Amino acid sequence: MTTRRTFLSYSGLALGSSLLPGQQWLLNHLFPVAGEMRLLRNNVGIYLERGGSIGWMMDKEGAVVIDTQFPEQAGNFIAQMQTKTDRKVDILFNTHHHGDHSSGNIAFKGLADRLVAHTRSKANQEAAAAAQNTLDKQWLPDTVFEENWSSKVGSETVTARYFGPGHTNGDSVVHFENANVAHLGDLCFNRRFPYIDKKSGASIQNWILVLQQIRATFDSDTLFVFGHGKTNDMVTGGKEDLMAFENYLEQLLVYVRKGIAEGKTAEQLSEVPFIPNAPEWTGDGIRRSIDAALIELAEN
What is the rounded CA–CA span in Å between residue 48 and residue 67? Predict the structure, then answer.
């Protein structure tokens, strides 16, 4: 098995190497810092450090990892994982292409048997790396799917589903069926202003429909893992959190549409501490939501 030293050697890579210009804010605003493996249900848990939450499943017969943060953080996770199992990773998933979820892939090369993502997620990751001339620092998905993908791994059946454009045009949901834990990646920002990546096919209006489909697909016992939350305790939740975020996106469109009709500028629209009727989303980042809504409404 590849040694911990090998994985940690990737820590010298620039943390922002996979981020596009204008996305540097991701390094400053979206990363809970904890560095811990937390068990959720059965053999399924999460890891929080710097980047989108990592999901994992480990038992005597299999191991699965969802998202990889950055190379250094991926190395830290691998070091902890290897204290719990001597298995290779059967399946590594990327919920989408953004650097805080996928640039740590390279640390798993040689440890994971396959890397799975939606076909548009792979295309987005490849395009972003090519634009920055960093393809040599990437491990791109070698297995892609269009709608659904499923595999039995150890005691779990792991199923990935694509519901359509939302946060980007290539986000998928990964479900550990026996534990009934669903990793949503960035399809839900829990009480934290979202990044709406219009350049990568994001759609606020369709994102609302995606959240509705997710709520209809999974039952009331499903535990959801979110890519980002306002605090570490908010990276997991239930359907009520999806409904709250759905309301945020709906109220964002209502507010910006009304502002356009009143002739307000982006600066004027951003002079509020929160989107009206969605007061739980506060802090830095409201302007990003407003700018994305202005772009989308201008397209329609």
Answer: 11
